[in-house]
DUF2325 domain-containing protein (Undibacterium danionis), 418 residues
Amino acid sequence: MCEKHGTSQQQQGQQSATSTKAQAISSRRRRLWDLSRDTHCPVIGVCIPLAVLRRLMNKALGGIAQADDYEIHVGAIAECSYRNRVSEMLHEDLEQRYALTIKRFRTAKSIQALTQLWLDAIYQGDVAGAFWAGLTHPLCDVGLQEGMCRDMHMLQHQAGATVRADITRFNEVLEENAILTRELARHQERHTRHMQEKAQEIEKLQRHIVQLRAENIGKESTIAYLNADLLALKNMNLESSQPTNNHQSLRHKLDRMSARQTELEQKIRELKHKLAQRHSHDSQHAAQENTPSEQHNENKGNATHTTQAHRTIPITLQLQQKNVLCVGGRSGNVASYRDLIERVGGRFAHHDGGMEDNQSLLDSSLAAADLVICQTGCISHNAYWRVKEFCKRTGKRCVFVENPSVSSLARGLEQVSE
């Protein structure tokens, strides 16, 4: 009996060796169900991701598995022991997933070359595809298979330790990130506060610049005024240096010319007054005889009557040949302004307040004026402040008129007379 049992074991060993040798010699790669049960666990656990494994199991079973990852892993290992729908789907996925690695391992023509490819994969850190390609290679024997399983077992331990170290490092990085985030928030807050302070400082400097510009303009006006006074003094010195008889004759001649000019201006005002009354009378007479076909001419007559009515506004003020500067106002009313000023004996000058005229001419006009009328409703802000500052500094009389009409100008002149 012992001899028979020994003979039987010897025959089984010879058959196992023969089958192993046949597998090594054969060029056909082994299938998943051809592998030993010891290799199914690392193949399923390492070579197939859990999400892919769950999807393949759901597809093979025709539903949605309610089991957890470990139960699905154990079930897949059990199905890989023989050929069925699950093992075929898993084998097909592994073949497609690691096709390039399988192609590289197919070049190995000996056990030594296959072993070197596996060691190279371990060194490079890409063992999943190499593990599947090496186990299913025709030259993979029992020794190489056991060595690959031992290496994979140790790599999994190392991977677990690495994951734990990575988790610890990740937690440290999260804590460091929180500290840096708080520090960054503090820096941003400080930077924002600093920017606000700089913005306020810039605004303050800009206001100071505007103030300095205004002071500079005032100084320029003062210089122009002093230059005019200096020129007048020089002219007076020149006149005083001439002979006394010549000076007296010129003075008499100037008095005669002034009296003649006053007389002529009085006559002109009287003639303008009579002409205005005449136009008013003619307009009233023509309004009574107008026909419907002459309605357009009647509108023009009314406009003329309005203009003449402005000319007949009574003013008790007499300007006595004073220079009157009107700053601003409507361009269409300038002629009416001039007529009103000249009717009360003044000399009219106009500046549009910076709309079209050059603002540099405003200072010289202000220096030559005896009375300034500022049309506040039709003037630029810069010209308004320049007129106000000049009159306040020099003490010249300034009348501010809000409405650019002729009647408002007349009321302003009446305020001067009062």
In short: Residues 7-140 form one domain. Residues 142-241 form the longest helix (100 residues). The first strand starts at residue 323 and ends at 327.
